Amino acid sequence: MAFSPRAVLEAQQGYKKIIEENPALALFSAWPQMWTAQKRLAEFLNARPQDLFLRPNVTVAMNDFIMALELPPNSEIIISDIEYGAIINICRYKAEKEGHTLKIVGGGESFLANLKQAVGPKTKLVMVSHVTTGSGFVFPIEEIAAFCRQKNIFFAVDGAHGAGSMPLDFSKTEVDFYGSNLHKWMMGPKGTGFGWVSPKMRPHLKPQFAGWTTYDVQPHFQAFGGGDEWTVRWMICSTVQFADYYAISDTIQFWQTLGAAQIQKRQRELRDFCAGEVTRKTGWVCLSDQVAPAFRGPMVAFALPAALANRGFELIFLLKEKHQLLVSMTMIHNTWCLRLAPHIYNTEAEITQAAGVLASLR
Ligand SMILES: Cc1ncc(COP(=O)(O)O)c(C=O)c1O
User: Fold this and answer.
1) Ligand 1 within 6 A of 67 CB?
2) Ligand 1 contacts CB of residue 157 (under 6 A)
3) Domains 6-258 and 260-359 share a fold
4) Closest alpha carbon to 164 in 192, 140, 126
């Protein structure tokens, strides 16, 4: 999760206040406002708003797509060996529930080459992250998508760290599904994410959830989806904290005002500065820089000396309590690593200070 701009937080509070003034009315007036938020997001992603569905986070979005995907019995699902635990479990659960097998293919930079060797006639779904949780490694998703399309294999992307940190253009992509968070690099309200579904995928999906928009759709839901029944079927149609979703529009406004290219350029400057500064002061190996620049994402992870790595999650709390330093600990191949995720609200001076704190750890 990332910090949100003040303008987004204030807008969110304002929407909450209006909802609290008349909760009953709020429910009926939610659907046109949710559609407005979805359209603003679509504009930013160069997507058709009809191909998106809003969800509280990427875990829910990935569940809704993966569990809805109809695969022939005894299929094979392939994932990489550096995926996020919760999303691995969705693939594993689907495999166990429906009688498929789950294969793990390693490789990072050589993943695509290894995938080409690993696929067989039973392979029906490949799932990888866009930007991995451990070190911020960036998978070449369009190259993987082109290969999967050629082999008639579905390709789903866990883009938890994608939106906001990478330029996304859904008018051009070859991927079949992309799930993402808005509460990470987009700096949107906590509890907001989305799924983007290629229109080609619609005949292959049977939603696992049901609600108000499953059968005869009441007129007030028709304000959503621009007349597209599929979009209405996949929309959120139950009570949620609508204010969080409405503030997606304000998040997009923030990005448009500052300029997405400018924000992402600054993220990269801070990321590279952070990698250099922490390496220089601590002597730790920057795992994120062990790959060619094209595979480097917005985060930097460091291998820790054994005594620190053994302390696992505890370091997150220690660094926050003692030094006001916000870090993450991630597992890469069963070893705890320290991960830093600088964003535009950070400065070089803060990063230098943080590097000094890390260097003082024993
Ligand atoms: C690669 C990856 N996928 C999925 C998730 C899950 O995100 P959420 O808990 O917001 O659904 C994360 C969270 O850090 C992640 O790093």
Assistant:
1) no
2) no
3) no
4) 192
State which amino acid sits at residue 215. Y
| CATH 3.40.50.10260 corresponds to the domain 6-258 | no
pTM equals: 0.97
CATH architecture of 260-359: Alpha-Beta Complex (3.90)
Cβ atoms of residues 247 and 189 within 8 Å:
yes
117-129 pLDDT per residue, tens = 999 999 999 999 9
- Where do the structural domains in the chain lie, given as residue ranges? 6-258, 260-359
User: Alpha helices, DSSP H only, in the chain?
Assistant: 6-21, 23-45, 58-68, 85-98, 111-118, 141-150, 229-234, 242-258, 260-282, 306-309, 314-323, 348-359
Per-residue pLDDT tens for 134-157? 999 999 999 999 999 999 999 999
CA proximity to 57, closest of 188, 171, 156, 154? 188
Q: Which residues contact 238 (CB under 8 A, 6 or more apart)?
A: 211, 212
Beta strand pairing call for 300-303 and 335-340: antiparallel
The response to whether residue 38 sits with its C-beta less than 6 Å from ligand 1 reads no
Can you tell me which residue has the tokens 């050629």?
A: 150
Q: Whose CA is nearest to atom 10 of ligand 1?
A: 57
Distance (Å, whole) CA 10 – CA 360: 38
Report the residue among 90, 138, 161 best suited for mutation to probe ligand 1: largest number of ligand atoms under 8 A from its CB.
161
What's the token pair of residue 48? 């058709």
* For residues 100-120, average pLDDT: 97
